[in-house]
Hints:
Number of domains: 1
Shape: elongated
Number of strands: 0
Amino acid sequence: MAAQDILPPGGALTPARLGLSRCALTGAVVVGALFALCWIGVAAGLASPSHMFISLFTVAPIASAAALGIGLCWSLVFGALSGALIAVVYNASSFLGRP
Length: 99
């Protein structure tokens, strides 16, 4: 296979772009899952350092159901915002990948 068969029309490679919604969804799922795991660890008495992560998203008592509900909602929002910001910065810095 020759190089011209691999390259797109015009012969130049363009840097890949990240999808904003896909990165936002990924960030929300990851941070939400981490929050839920930390809350489960604190509620079960297994992971006391996790209380600081939980405190980032709620002021409710750490092992309460309110902390789980409020914190999970805010962690999903923060994760989505973080993922979207990563995609925006990555796509905006695509000029750095040009030869």
